[in-house]
Amino acid sequence: MNRTIFLTGIGFGVLAVVLGAFGAHGLEKWIDAEAINTFETGVRYQMYHAFFLLILGGMAKMPRRSKKWVYYLIVVGTILFSFSIYLLATNGLTGFDFRALGFLTPIGGTLLISGWLVLGYHGFKHFDQ
After folding, report:
1. CA–CA distance from 19 to each of 7, 25, 46, 59 (Å)?
2. Cα separation of 18 and 43, whole Å?
3. Which has fewest Cβ within 10 Å: 48, 64, 67, 72?
4. CA distances in angstroms from 58 to 7, 79, 129, listed in the order given
């Protein structure tokens, strides 16, 4: 499981760098500054949670089952939160209205918060003081 968590963190990090570069250098011709700022918010939260996964993968004292819960909450939360933001920020580039998917962003955010809380609970419970 630790390897999967670590590799997912690496994947999210690489993708955040690629999307960040694309947002900074490729989107400026097609979307306005406000949309670019929105896009960058998605990139920033994706990178935060890439680091989160790298740290989670290295935690030896956390039980496997607890780690799995945190992993799934963070992965699904990041996908729903950041990727819905990417779609919303680039809404004008396609014929599909991604605003219909806007409800996914707060669901993703709630999952991210839940992942942090579950990590905090199990960290407090299982780590030496």
Report:
1. 18, 10, 10, 28
2. 9
3. 64
4. 12, 22, 19
